[in-house]
Amino acid sequence: MITKPFLFFLFCGIILCVSCEKDLPTYLEYEEYSFTGLDENGGTWKPVLFDQVSSITLEAPKEITSQSYKAEVTALKSAIGQMTDSQRESLAYWGNNPVVRWNEIALELIAKYNIIPGPNDDDSYTLPSPATPDGPPGFPFAHPPYAGRALAYLSVAQFDGLIAAWHYKYRYNRKAPYQQDTSISFAYEPNTLPSYPSDGAVLARVSRKILTALFPLEATYLQELEQNHLESLGVSGANVASDLAAGSTIGDAVAQLALTRAASDGMKNAQTPKAVSDSIKQAAFNRFGWQWENLELPTRPVGLTPLFGKVKMWNVTNVEDVRPVAPPAIDSESYLKDVQLLKDHASNMTEEKRRIANFWQDGLGTYTPPGHWNRFANEFIVEHKMNPLRAARTLAYLNMAVMDAGISCWDAKYYYHYPRPIQTIPGFKTIAGTPNFPSYTSGHSVFSAAASEVLAYIFPEKAELVRNWAEEAAISRVYGGIHWSFDATVGTRQGIEIANYTIHKAQADGSD
Amino acid sequence: MIRSLLNYTTVQQAFKCTVFLSLFFLKSTLVAQTPTDALMMPSKNVCFLVSYDYGAFDQYWEGERLRENQTIATVSRQTLLPMVAVGIFNDLNLYIGLPYVKTESSNPNGGRFEGAKGFQDLTLALKYKILEKELGNGNLYILTGAGFSTPATNYLSDYMPYSLGLGAPEFALRGIVKYQLNNGFYARGMAGHLWRGYTEAERDYYYNDGSYYTSFMDVPNAWNVEAVIGKWFFSNTLRFELNYTGIKSTSGDDIRAYNAAQPTNKVTFDRIGVSLQYYFPFAKGLGAVGNYSQVVHGLNTGKFTNVSMGLTYQFNFVKKTNTGFDDN
């Protein structure tokens, strides 16, 4: 009798513990789907990194009647017949649109490497260096500009690689093995996409090479992923070995072009020595009478990538063309109004404002705002049942706009060198971490507005949704206490303007 | 940042109340969901307790590395805990507690983060005496306890080291053995397991040795042990106790370099403490408790020092009288 209440309590507790166990998603799960279209003319679309598709050469495949091809088909059948459970899992994982998977792999590496170097014991800071990637600290620090740039090179290279693949697929028109031989089953929804060269192999090679250059400590991991992807393609029924080899050839050629551009785009000079950083700060002070200061303890001697604003843009000729007007002078009427606004938010923090500040924070240790917008794009791509070429195009234009947004934002940040709220409002505290760079304009605002415009162009029915998200992302930084409201509103307009350069280019690429 | 914040608990025992405050301080770690001592309150008795705890750390373990971080400087956590204990039967007690917590960084600090304050987790716990038996020159007690706690407010657990708690439901099951000599010396051991559910963050992506596309974070389960020696003095009016408390998460990731802690971290700590408990002879039913503790070793937790004090008041709610000692 006495033990009954106790046992009942025990029972309820155990039921509760067991019932809430569940798997948490580690990637975008989707049912494989039938592509809404194959974009048979995709080989005529305008690539980004080169002018003529013919500059990427690929020799004609052997005839399907040849002995060597027949041997490849026999090998394929044998491989499918001996398929292992882990190969089946790989097929399910990579899915019929591996553009999404390689993008997620990039997002994960960004989150893994988005760790800001802490101070040494003597209060100095050591910055990661590509020359000594092992560190400490390990290279890279995948902050938002680094992330946006990484995603741009990855997506552009994937896009160009697939344009070349489509060009040769429809030029050589080699039918997929499962289309030729009904005894071969295809792992995904059937289509009439020619198999030579393998689009999957292009993606595996180009993605592995770009990501290895950007995340050199992950070379082995990425090599394993590429191998796993190729192995799954080898038992999917869509490719024989020569299809895969041809895809790798194209992947190598396009990755080379992308990495050549990356090596000379100015990124290597973006993180400056202290003397250069001090002169940039002094120039702003002479011009405007204010300057941003890092308030961390110990003080960081140099802000984040002061010369990222000089990095070569994709679709804007001159960064100064999109530089916003100057922010309100310190102690001006508009400035004082914003001080009051920030104080009001801080003293009237609601659960809704806190939720917005946290949802869009995308801070250290996460995939950053560029990554957040790529995640949305991945979801839309699957929802729209895009083929890999369409998906790569979406991400290429998205990420070119995002990288251009970052460059323009950083140009404004270090040209105006405007203080953060904690610097000029005495005793001010925040619920978000104040970053190591000037305030005006807000990176979240520019990244998000640019990304949302490109997504609105590609997914018109999402236009209102994504533009609202971009505005929420912008104001989230004001709620977080780390940005002025004009950082957000001007940054949003700046992002929209930058995106339009990319959208104009997209509209003329032959795909619409 | 430092999840460990949560992990400090103070071990205090209200006299007759037999309440283990510590448990409650941290729903999170909830060492404290169930009273972990071996004292029982007689049937129809009720005990109120109010205690105040001040805990702080200026070093924390990032994985295994003990470090300082001027971004957060010294982090303090103050807890005000009102609790009530009810003797349902002589061998079954119920405990209900709801702490109010306030956290902040000392000045100056490099992060300028706002602290947090508010009610943490509502804890309900039952303790049941399975056995009480004379053995040699003393008595042997065997008890078991079960506790459940859940966030009482919508506080954000994903805001370490300032978050009020782990933000997850927790179910605790404990076994307690005590042997007390007739001269007042006693030794007690406790072992328990804490099952934690998920906490919900306000972001829907986080990194935990890989990407997670969800706002739910898996808060690791943990083992909880305690070892105590103590003695009653002055006709059972004063009790002095030395105690050890251990928490060991069964899974979880490490705090990443110079990065904030998160509720998924694998938290472990060893803490030693000393407690005093006093029953006022001039005011029947009124008692005082005090505790000092220090985390001496840990993983992914703050090196907390805690000081607490509290008052307890016990009476028989049927007879409306204050009760004397029981013999435990």
Automatic annotation (TrEMBL), chain A:
GO molecular function, one term: peroxidase activity
Record-linked CDD domains: PAP2_haloperoxidase (cd03398)
Phosphatidic acid phosphatase type 2/haloperoxidase domain segment(s): 395-503
UniProt-listed Gene3D superfamilies: Vanadium-containing Chloroperoxidase, domain 2 (1.10.606.10)
InterPro entries referenced in this protein's UniProt entry, alphabetically: Br/Cl_peroxidase_C, PAP2/HPO, PAP2/HPO_sf, V-haloperoxidase
Highest taxon above the source species: Bacteria
Pfam families reported in the protein's UniProt record: PAP2
Entry protein name: PAP2 superfamily protein
Organism: Leeuwenhoekiella marinoflava
Automatic annotation (TrEMBL), chain B:
Superkingdom as given in the UniProt entry: Bacteria
Alphabetic keyword roster: Signal
Signal peptide positions on this chain: 1-32
Protein name: Outer membrane beta-barrel porin/alpha-amylase
Organism per entry: Leeuwenhoekiella marinoflava DSM 3653
Species classification: Bacteria, Pseudomonadati, Bacteroidota, Flavobacteriia, Flavobacteriales
